[in-house]
């Protein structure tokens, strides 16, 4: 089979190599899955760089979420068990963690539903306890995780403000349903958010960016607001001023979604059921901006790492087309 493998850490476009190799052998409690589609995520770039929380042994195949097919023909969503990731024709996953692919979504959309939407759901509902009528501010609103948070926020009855970088991404954010879109490249984010909220600020801030975005979050969060720290796509990990959180009365909430898979896997399944229901009634639908062939995976991961993509980029092996069979 064909598989992308990383033999040394570095930038994805430089260290990912497409190779011919034998199919992986599942371990105890694992299953072999035919990859129908694999979502590209920022953690894939971090894995290549050796900067992710998990560091699989070299060589390894990146690709942390897939829509796959079991030997008996079931469509499932899975997080592949590294080092046998999803940018390959076959991957390995833990049998107990397989989730049914929603019938309302094609393969590429199903692959893109998992990490981004689970992260959005846990961040907004489990950590921030977002309520209908509140205002939600989403940084990188046109990106993979941000676009999921926008749709989930709208589905929850929130007013959503999306922060993006550039007119193309602003158009995507509007298409996703943002009530207000702020282009950080041409607008003062803090002033725009204050104007949109009548000076009150946002009840919940969803921040997968860090760096300067976090500083904006602290200035725009409302009284008793909640800032959900999801990641640091900017490459800069901020140092929150806790005295500011104290005097302004807001909460800083961390979210490491992957931890729920070991600490509370039943909650992950509950979340998947809610997401499947939302997808069935059309309240959420992953914005798959590109379906790329397997030989384009390295370039796709690099572009996601560089922040030049919108929505979700999904790798579809030659054996499939990203659609429901």
Structure commentary:
Helix 7 links the parallel strand 11 and strand 12. Helix 3 packs across helix 4. The mean pLDDT is 95. By secondary structure, this protein is of the alpha/beta class. The two termini are 21 Å apart. It has eleven helices and 15 strands. The strands form three sheets. Strands 3, 4, 5, 6, 7, 14 and 15 form a seven-stranded mixed sheet that branches. A six-stranded parallel sheet has the order 10-9-8-11-12-13, sandwiched between helices.
Give the H and E element order: EHEEHEEEEHEHEHEHEHEHEHHEHE
Rounded radius of gyration (Å): 19 Å
The percentage helix is 25-40%
Largest sheet: 7 strands, mixed
The first-to-last residue Cα distance is 21 Å
Helix count from the secondary structure assignment: 11
Classification by helices and strands: alpha/beta
- Judging from the principal axes of the Cα atoms, what is the shape? globular
- What is the count of β-strands? 15
User: Can you tell me the residue ranges where pLDDT is under 50 for at least 5 consecutive residues?
Assistant: none
Beta-strand level of the residues, as a percent range? 15-25%
pLDDT averaged over residues = 95
């Amino acid at each position: 089979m064909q598989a992308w493998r990383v033999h040394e850490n570095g930038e994805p476009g430089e260290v990912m190599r497409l190779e011919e190799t034998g199919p992986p052998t599942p371990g105890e409690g694992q299953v072999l899955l035919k990859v129908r589609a694999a979502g590209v995520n920022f953690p894939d770039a971090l894995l290549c760089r050796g900067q992710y929380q998990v560091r699989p042994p070299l060589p390894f195949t990146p690709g942390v979420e897939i829509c796959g097919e079991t030997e008996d023909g079931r469509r499932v969503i899975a997080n592949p068990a590294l080092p046998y990731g999803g940018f390959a024709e076959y991957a390995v996953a833990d049998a107990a963690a397989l989730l049914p692919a929603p019938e309302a979504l094609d393969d590429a959309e199903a692959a893109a539903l998992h990490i981004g939407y689970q992260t959005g759901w846990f961040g907004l509902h489990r950590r921030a306890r977002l309520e209908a009528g509140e205002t939600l501010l989403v940084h990188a609103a046109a990106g993979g995780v941000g676009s999921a948070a926008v749709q989930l926020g709208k589905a929850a009855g929130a007013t959503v403000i999306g922060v993006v970088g550039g007119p193309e991404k602003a158009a995507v954010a509007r298409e996703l349903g943002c009530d207000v879109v702020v282009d950080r490249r041409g607008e003062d984010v803090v002033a725009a958010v204050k104007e949109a909220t009548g000076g009150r600020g946002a009840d919940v801030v969803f921040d997968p960016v860090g760096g300067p975005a976090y500083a904006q979050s602290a200035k725009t969060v409302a009284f008793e607001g909640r800032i959900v720290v999801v990641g640091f796509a900017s490459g800069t990990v901020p140092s929150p001023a806790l005295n500011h959180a104290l005097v302004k009365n807001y909460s800083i909430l961390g979210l490491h979604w992957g931890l729920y898979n070991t600490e509370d896997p039943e909650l992950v399944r509950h979340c998947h059921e809610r997401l499947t229901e939302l997808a069935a009634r059309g309240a959420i639908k992953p914005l798959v901006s590109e379906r790329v062939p397997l030989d384009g995976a390295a370039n796709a991961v690099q572009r996601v790492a560089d922040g030049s993509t919108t929505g979700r980029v999904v790798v579809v092996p030659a054996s499939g087309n990203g659609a429901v069979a």
